[in-house]
Amino acid sequence: MASHIVGYPRMGPKRELKFALESFWDGKSSAEDLQKVAADLRSSIWKQMADAGIKYIPSNTFSYYDQMLDTSAMLGAVPERYGWNGGEIGFDTFFSMARGNATVPAMEMTKWFDTNYHFIVPELGPNTKFSYSSHKAVNEYKEAKALGVDTVPVLIGPVTYLFLSKSAKGVQKSFSPLSLLGNILPVYKEVITELKAAGASWIQFDEPTLVLDLDARQLEAFTKAYSDLESSLSGLNCLIKPTLLMTITALNSITGFGFDLVRGAKTLDLVKCSFPSGKYLFAGVVDGRNIWANDLAASLDILQSLEAIVGKDKLVVSTSCSLMHTAVDLVNETKLDNEIKSWLAFAAQKVVEVNALAKALASSRDEAFFSANASAQASRKSSPRVTNEEVQKAAAALRGSDHRRATNVSARLDAQQKKLNLPILPTTTIGSFPQTVELRRVRREYKAKKISEDEYVSAIKEEINKVVKLQEELDIDVLVHGEPERNDMVEYFGEQLQGFAFTVNGWVQSYGSRCVKPPIIYGDVSRPKAMTVFWSSMAQSMTSRPMKGMLTGPVTILNWSFVRNDQPRFETCYQIALAIKKEVEDLEAAGIQVIQIDEAALREGLPLRKSEQAFYQDWAVHSFRITNCGVQDTTQIHTHMCYSNFNDIIHSIIDMDADVITIENSRSDEKLLSVFREGVKYGAGIGPGVYDIHSPRIPSAEEIADRINKMLAVLETNILWVNPDCGLKTRKYGEVKPALTNMVDAAKLLRTQLASAK
After folding, report:
1. Residue 609 assigned to a binding site
2. b/e map of 36-60 (b: 16 or more CB within 10 Å)?
3. Residue 598 labelled as part of a binding site
4. Confidence of residue 622 (pLDDT cuts 50, 70, 90)
């Protein structure tokens, strides 16, 4: 019986790639040093899977930044502004596309479907020229083969690549990147030909677009692509992951089809009804998106029912998707509670689960392994630490009720302006300021009990005071305290809520070298005590300007955690909302007049199928409103959202009823603003980001002013805020100070111009 892994985390068990990348970017190490770290990681991953008994091991799932960017490099799809003149694409061009440089902005970045992973969006137009410009897929296949591991090279499929692309700046709105399908397929054929010559017997095309609701034209593109590739694929086994049953029977070039049988609730029934004979079925029964141990007995039952349909020789046990969305290895979690640890499986453990299921199907079941798994499943179901009846009842009482502030947003903004007395185009930042090496050291030593609480509070107070004074010097209107006490915007709150567990090395890639460490929600959630009031009150006492209280919203805490899978997600979200509601009320009582409740991840939780989206939007928006429905009109509620396509949920954003919303916007060339050009009326405050904080590039005041002017063309002056794209945590003060100076100067310049125009 065969086993397969769709993809694997590439940062390394202790973020080895992250540190190597950042050292290289800072000029502290060479390209050869970076390549050595990368090669060692790839080698260890391939050998790990081979030692575990996996038959179909992926290659080319490693990336120095992002697989979509790798595909753009493979196709030679480099925007003109990067000055690339052909040939093999090197680090300079590759990282400039990803991060920008001193003179050229980066490409747009957005979320990968409904995950927290960000990809670099290709920029294409009718005149884009394609050429085979990165041989990475072939080189990595050969690299693995030299180590004695025969892998399955993985490519982003041509339909998904084009579907996720955007029209380059200046290209007519009617242009469709899918029209370039015939232009990119010759490059794919060159890659396939080289892989065959190198000895590859299988190739995997990742086509996640096929889980969406596609129209006839989009489905036709899929059929056309793989029909056109058929002659090139001759002699190769070809796997499509994932796929739609309605399209597969006509594709003779495809040998196997992969399905997510974890999230695809109806997929199993469809497979049972209409799977084509003679094809391989890669059954994704091990969850690639969460960290709970697989219920091996239940998965084995599913696999045995599939075996009866497709036959033993054609069934392959697989993960539901790439394991890059999970933490790497549970072995590194030496401080995790033993009972909770027994309930978990990280990527390394999921590899073992996949092979254990494959062996069990082949009548070689590891009884001890299955028995330990059954005991862990029973322990989790019966553990008293999972359930809190009082919390369950409070959350259940929220269903069917509406929670809104009593006054409409226009009246609230008037009341808030009288109290806050802000200028037009008020300036603010999103929350965090640079997290220096010294600051991280202080937090680390306090956690390890190497310094006292008094010493810790004194150090954090000094940092807050520095941030407050800097903002006053820059003349920013609404201040933040900089969040020096926080390790992560979700983990910080989870550590103070009941029902959460935490890891030491449970890192997951978010974008580039940026990793997050999602908390684990294992039980009912409640707030034992105030979480932020002490620091926010301290910061407010340092200034006469408004100080924002900074909170993470319930939907974002949910979507950026590993969530319990034993109850509906909305029930867990309502529990978190009630906890945040208490914090909002305590901040208001402490005199904090502006409270930001970040919902950075609202969009990414949107289900991929349209039939499921209305229900999600209803409970997600409701959860946000629960947090602040009881505050006074004069208390201004802000929220913030990260890179995503917001246009299709704009009405839900409006329904959130926040007083001010800030949105990441700068990399998209104001694509967000198009929704307002098309007639959507928005009466609350809004701050589309005026510069990109994910790049070290410092924009000029003139550039920022130009961007604000574009916003003023579609938004009312009295609702527009001026702010960066996101928090400044990952930047250096040498970048932050001049960028914020230019931002404030731009706002002041436009205030003067607007005043003189009256």
Report:
1. no
2. ebbeebbeebbebbbebebbbbbbb
3. yes
4. very high
CATH of 56-222+233-240, one of 3.90.640.20, 1.10.490.10, 3.20.20.210, 3.40.190.10: 3.20.20.210
How far is residue 431 from each of residues 235, 512, 558, 611, measured CA to CA in Å? 55, 21, 20, 35
pLDDT at residue 521 greater than cutoff 90: yes
430 assigned to a ligand binding site: yes
Structure confidence by residue, pLDDT tens digits, 137-191: 999 999 999 999 999 999 999 999 999 999 998 898 889 999 999 999 999 999 9
Q: Is residue 116 marked as binding?
A: yes
Share the mean pLDDT of the chain: 93
At residue 350, the pLDDT reads 98
Between helices 347-361 and 296-310, what is the axis angle to 10°? 50
671 pLDDT above the threshold of 80:
no
Q: Which fold has domain 1-53+276-384?
A: TIM Barrel (3.20.20)
Q: Which of 118, 325, 481, 694 is catalytic?
A: 694
Which stretches of 642-747 are assigned E, i.e. beta strand? 660-663, 685-688
Topology of domain 394-399+407-757 in CATH is: TIM Barrel (3.20.20)
- Please enumerate in sequence order all residues whose Cβ is within 8 A of that of 376, keeping only pairs 6 or more positions apart, or say none: 293, 342, 343
**Residue 672: pLDDT band with limits 50, 70, 90:** low
How far, in Å, CA of 417 to CA of 478, rounded?
Answer: 12
Q: Is 667 annotated as a binding residue?
A: no
Provide CATH 3.20.20.210 ranges for the chain.
1-53+276-384, 56-222+233-240, 394-399+407-757
Would residue 322 be called left, alpha or beta, if left means φ above 0 and alpha means ψ between -120 and 50 degrees?
A: beta
Return the bridge partners of 427, or none. 722
* Bridging pattern class, strands 256-260 and 498-501: unpaired
SS3 174: coil
Average pLDDT over residues 495-515: 95
Q: What is the pLDDT of residue 246?
A: 47
**Coil, helix or strand for 401?**
coil
pLDDT tier at 679 (50, 70, 90 boundaries)?
low
For residue 3, the cross-strand partners are 317
Work out the average pLDDT over 533-538.
Answer: 98
The pLDDT, as a whole number, for residue 533 is 98
Q: Do the annotations mark residue 651 as ligand-binding? A: yes
Query: In the annotation, is 622 catalytic?
Result: no
Closest CA to 383 of 566, 518, 506, 526: 566
Whether 653 and 675 have beta carbons less than 8 Å apart is answered as no
Q: Known binder of ligand: residue 625?
A: no
Nearest to 726 by CA among 453, 431, 501, 351: 431
Residue 11 CB coordination number (10 Å): 21
Which range is least confidently modeled, 153-157, 296-300, 395-399, 739-743?
Answer: 395-399
Q: CA neighbours within 13 Å on the CB side: how many for 259?
A: 23
Does 292 count as an annotated binding residue? no
Interval 452-475 mean pLDDT: 97
